[in-house]
């Protein structure tokens, strides 16, 4: 059902258009707040269902703030014991100056859930977007990524523990990993189909060994990224996002996803040739989001640095236990 909804929407609208119409449809189906508690008006589903929803949207090239609304903003409100209604939301972590940069869909949301640090810890507040200073922007895929500024002195929020902040960071990081993996799989499918259908010198591109190698590398890197992401997600759900090794596993997933994207995007454009660079071909609808998403909620370099710090901390004698989880 989910794929049918997204496929129908994509056939009728270019990327980024018709969001309000699609959002209304998803809300009617109980998908806009899929993981929200039934007591607060949600559908009471879990992360496995939410992941499939995110994958379906990314696979069809549909850009909509499902994750930001359900898995981040509304989750923060429920965790803090605050009321949730049907208004569309996004969420962000403010710095000490009350600024958050590159916030997804801020200008397009009715409310923004703010998370910030004060002298006593961290606080959460549900704020009307109109009361914030929002500077519109976008990422390289054309999705809204806005700068948000709030007056910290004027905010009165609900206290939350440091664990909530850590979970917010891990949830956001894995959300992007899931979305990138979905588009990498779509890029693989497109590349396989193109090599079978396109002929050169009287035979399909798939018959050329050099092309086969390019596609094989796309498949291998996509599978590695997906395995690392699924592993981190499995540990997160097993431990309710509280496992000590989770931070390491999230870093592994994001590093694998980031480096896989480089190989997949480069090889896919080589396989597709000139046609893959045109606006008429759909390849850019997946390669551009992959390149943009891999740098959100932590760049590739950031997650590589996290892994380096872990490896340096445990040293050569502890590295095997770190990688295999034998030291848990």
TrEMBL record:
Domain of life per record: Bacteria
Cleavable signal peptide: none
Pfam families for this protein: Acyl-CoA_dh_1 (PF00441)
Keywords tagged on the record: FAD, Flavoprotein, Oxidoreductase
Gene3D superfamilies: Acyl-CoA dehydrogenase/oxidase, N-terminal domain, Butyryl-CoA Dehydrogenase, subunit A, domain 3
SUPFAM superfamilies according to UniProt: Acyl-CoA dehydrogenase C-terminal domain-like, Acyl-CoA dehydrogenase NM domain-like
MF (Gene Ontology): oxidoreductase activity
EC number per UniProt: 1.-.-.-
Domain Acyl-CoA dehydrogenase/oxidase C-terminal: 173-291
Cofactor: FAD
Recorded family membership: Belongs to the acyl-CoA dehydrogenase family.
PANTHER family: ACYL-COA DEHYDROGENASE, ACYL-COA DEHYDROGENASE FADE28
Record-given protein name: Acyl-CoA dehydrogenase family protein
Organism of origin: Mycolicibacterium porcinum
Lineage of producing organism: Bacteria, Bacillati, Actinomycetota, Actinomycetes, Mycobacteriales
């Amino acid at each position: 059902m989910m794929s049918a909804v997204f496929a129908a929407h994509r056939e009728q609208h270019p990327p980024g258009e018709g969001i309000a119409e699609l959002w209304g449809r998803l809300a009617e189906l109980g998908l806009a707040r899929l993981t929200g508690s039934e007591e607060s008006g949600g559908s009471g589903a879990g992360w496995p269902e939410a992941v499939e929803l995110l994958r379906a949207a990314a696979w069809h090239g549909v850009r909509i703030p499902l994750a930001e609304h359900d898995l981040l903003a509304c989750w923060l409100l429920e965790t803090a014991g605050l009321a949730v209604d049907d208004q569309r939301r996004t969420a962000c972590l403010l710095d000490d100056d009350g600024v958050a940069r590159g916030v997804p869909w801020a200008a397009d949301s009715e409310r923004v859930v703010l998370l910030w640090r004060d002298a006593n810890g961290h606080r959460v507040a549900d704020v009307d977007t109109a009361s914030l200073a929002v500077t519109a922007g976008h990422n390289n895929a054309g999705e809204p990524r806005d700068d948000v500024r709030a007056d910290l002195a004027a905010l009165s929020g609900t206290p939350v523990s440091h664990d909530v902040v850590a979970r917010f960071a891990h949830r956001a990081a894995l959300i992007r990993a899931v979305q990138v993996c979905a588009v990498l799989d779509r890029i693989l499918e497109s590349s396989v189909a193109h090599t079978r259908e396109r002929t050169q010198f009287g035979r399909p591109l798939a018959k050329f060994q050099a092309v086969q190698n390019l596609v094989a590398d796309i498949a291998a890197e996509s599978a590695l990224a997906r395995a690392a992401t699924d592993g981190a997600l499995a540990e997160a759900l097993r431990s309710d996002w509280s496992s000590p090794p989770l931070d390491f596993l999230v870093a592994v997933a994001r590093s694998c996803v980031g480096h896989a994207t480089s190989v997949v995007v480069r090889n896919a454009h080589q396989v597709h040739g000139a046609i893959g660079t045109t606006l008429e071909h759909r390849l850019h609808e997946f390669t551009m989001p992959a390149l943009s998403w891999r740098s959100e909620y932590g760049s590739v370099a950031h997650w590589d640095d996290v892994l380096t710090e872990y490896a340096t901390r445990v040293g050569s004698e502890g590295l095997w236990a770190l990688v295999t989880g034998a030291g848990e």
